[in-house]
Design a protein that fits this description.
- There is one protein chain.
- This protein has 103 residues and is mainly β.
- It has one helix spanning 43-48; strands at 18-25, 29-37, 56-66, 72-82, 88-92.
- It has a domain at 18-42 and 54-94: SH3 type barrels (Roll).
- A hairpin with a 3-residue loop joins strand 1 (18-25) and strand 2.
- The radius of gyration is 18 Å and the shape is globular.
- The termini are far apart.
Length: 103
């Protein structure tokens, strides 16, 4: 006996997030990339949430620079930065033209 195929309502495969370009300063590195926060959420709440909820801040489309210059050390599609290593962070609604990937 074969069972009929199960049909389930379609589910979205992604969760809608607001994107902001961030530059995170660490002791020896400057990390530039995109942070994704809940729509209407405050970035300060996202950054300051309890470390036990998740100690890492996820970034996409990341470029890592030496802290003392503009030398690109590497790029990656994803990186997680531990909150305890962040010295400070800046945000912008859009990435500057030089930070965008070529089309």
């Amino acid at each position: 006996m074969t069972l009929p195929p199960r049909t389930a309502p379609p589910r979205p495969l992604t969760i809608q997030k607001d994107q902001q370009y961030a530059v995170i300063y660490l002791l020896n590195y400057r990390v530039a990339g995109t942070v994704h926060v809940a729509p209407g959420g405050r970035i300060s709440d996202f950054i300051n949430r309890n470390v036990s909820d998740g100690p890492f801040i996820p970034l996409t489309d990341v470029t890592v620079y030496a802290a003392d210059g503009n030398e690109v050390l590497f790029t990656t599609e994803f990186m997680a930065v531990h909150r305890n290593h962040i010295l400070f962070m800046t945000l912008d609604k859009e990435a500057p033209p030089l930070a965008r990937k070529p089309s």
